[in-house]
């Protein structure tokens, strides 16, 4: 049996570890949307306020109609797309490039998330694969589907088109340009509605740019750091940054060596240009967060395969990737926000308050509970539960609001990345 099969089988097996960990907010929003809305409503009612294209949601709607909306069922499509990307990369560059991608700790993390990031990674890599194989129709279709999955794909698509122009492959460039033009045109009514809604949301959510990813030095430096080390973090922060900056330097120096080789130049272009375009765009509309560029990991993996000549060195890099992935998978403190435990701790008929749009995790795990808006509702119950999640983003002081209504804080319980407060009048 071919090596790629064993590689993919092992990658699949480790992705099953901890797959039923709690959904976090965005995943819970996905679960609620595909459960609540029909196919057309996902486009006309949900998508205008979501700021993402609808293809991923439509796909997941069809998937969950068969497999349900458990944590595992919701996340399996992301696993499948991640493995598909590994197979594509194997066909392009062999074992090592595929292994670097499949066991990259950041890629493993998002392979377990019910979001569109591994889907767009697969589709953009498919577009690149099709261009290399001169299958232009497939490349055009992949470009359209990628943009309909994630708007941030546009940066890679533009880099791919520019590369074809520089290579004097004008027919390929023209076809890709036509494909993305059609994709944008078909989504233009939705894009316009999303733009209008984004203007109103910016006025409501005072610190929204911090969520989207402002163009600052921190967000810029997190890209190479997280691409090499994944999502795990620990205190003291000084030690974390020292260790992971050193590891990131090893990874990116190896990638630079690969970029200096003839075969690596086009790959380096497709890795670097989208980052530059994304950074420039973020000066006007913030989106400079590392996970929005997850689709570039296959090209980092290619450069590593080109830039690390000796097998023992390749094995060392792959070994560190696997260790970092296992640290995330096996240690729950590195998992996602624990809405599952928080929701299950709430008593029956609990009076819950917060920002309702930020508490979809509670709705997913405890749909029978009612959630009030602490900004608008007048609280009358003797005992209430406050979940101050995203208050900082909204510029909201929850304690001040409750104290004005004669409540006093009686207890605080911490869950992973979450806080639950009990208040009594």
Topology:
Layout: H1 3-15, H2 25-36, H3 39-46, H4 55-67, H5 71-93, H6 95-102, H7 105-111, H8 117-132, H9 136-149, H10 153-166, H11 170-204, H12 208-212, H13 217-229, H14 237-259, H15 262-282, H16 297-307, H17 311-330, H18 339-345, E1 352-354, H19 360-365, E2 371-373, E3 383-386, H20 391-394, H21 398-404, E4 408-415, E5 418-424
Parallel strand pairs: 1-2, 1-3
Antiparallel strand pairs: 3-5, 4-5
Helix pairs in contact: 1-5, 1-6, 2-4, 5-6, 5-7, 5-8, 6-16, 7-17, 8-9, 9-11, 10-11, 10-15, 13-14, 14-16, 15-16
Folded structure, characterized:
This protein is mainly alpha-helical. It folds into two domains: 3-207 and 308-334, no CATH class; 339-424. The chain has 21 helices and five strands. It has helices at 3-15, 25-36, 39-46, 55-67, 71-93, 95-102, 105-111, 117-132, 136-149, 153-166, 170-204, 208-212, 217-229, 237-259, 262-282, 297-307, 311-330, 339-345, 360-365, 391-394, 398-404, and strands at residues 352-354, 371-373, 383-386, 408-415, 418-424. The termini are far apart. The mean pLDDT is 94.
């Amino acid at each position: 049996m071919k090596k790629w099969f064993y590689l993919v089988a092992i990658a699949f097996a480790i992705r099953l570890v901890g797959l039923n960990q709690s959904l976090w907010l965005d995943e819970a929003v996905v679960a609620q949307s595909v459960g609540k809305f029909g196919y057309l409503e996902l486009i006309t009612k949900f998508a205008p306020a979501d700021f993402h294209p609808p293809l991923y949601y439509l796909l997941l709607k069809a998937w969950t109609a068969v497999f349900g909306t458990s944590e595992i069922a919701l996340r399996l499509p992301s696993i499948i797309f991640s493995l598909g990307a590994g197979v594509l990369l194997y066909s392009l560059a062999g074992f090592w490039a595929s292994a670097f991608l499949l066991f990259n700790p950041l890629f493993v993390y998002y392979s377990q998330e019910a979001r569109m990031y591994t889907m767009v990674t697969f589709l953009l890599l498919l577009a690149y694969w099709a261009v290399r194989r001169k299958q232009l129709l497939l490349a055009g279709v992949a470009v359209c589907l990628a943009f309909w999955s994630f708007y941030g794909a546009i940066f890679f698509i533009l880099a791919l088109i520019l590369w074809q122009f520089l290579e004097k492959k004008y027919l390929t460039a023209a076809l890709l340009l036509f494909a993305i033009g059609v994709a944008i045109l078909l989504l233009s009514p939705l894009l316009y509605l999303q733009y209008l809604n984004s203007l109103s949301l910016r006025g409501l959510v005072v610190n929204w740019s911090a969520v989207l990813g402002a163009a600052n030095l921190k967000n810029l430096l997190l890209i190479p750091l997280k691409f090499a080390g994944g999502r795990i973090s620990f205190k003291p922060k000084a030690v974390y940054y020292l260790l992971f900056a050193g590891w990131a330097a090893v990874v990116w120096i190896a990638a630079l060596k690969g970029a200096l080789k003839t075969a690596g130049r086009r790959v380096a272009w497709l890795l670097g240009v989208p980052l530059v375009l994304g950074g420039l765009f973020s000066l006007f509309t913030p989106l400079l967060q590392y996970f929005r560029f997850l689709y570039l990991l296959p090209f980092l993996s290619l450069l590593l395969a080109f830039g690390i000549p000796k097998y023992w060195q390749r094995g060392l890099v792959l070994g560190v990737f696997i260790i970092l992935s296992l640290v995330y998978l096996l240690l729950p403190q590195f998992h996602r926000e624990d809405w599952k435990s928080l929701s299950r701790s709430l008593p029956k008929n609990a009076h819950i308050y917060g920002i309702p749009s930020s508490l979809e995790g509670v709705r997913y795990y405890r749909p029978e509970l009612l959630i009030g808006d602490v900004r608008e509702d007048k609280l009358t119950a003797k005992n209430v539960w406050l979940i101050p999640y995203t208050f900082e983003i909204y510029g909201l002081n929850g304690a001040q609001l409750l104290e004005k209504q004669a409540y006093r804080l009686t207890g605080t319980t911490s869950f992973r990345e979450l806080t639950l407060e009990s208040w009594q009048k």
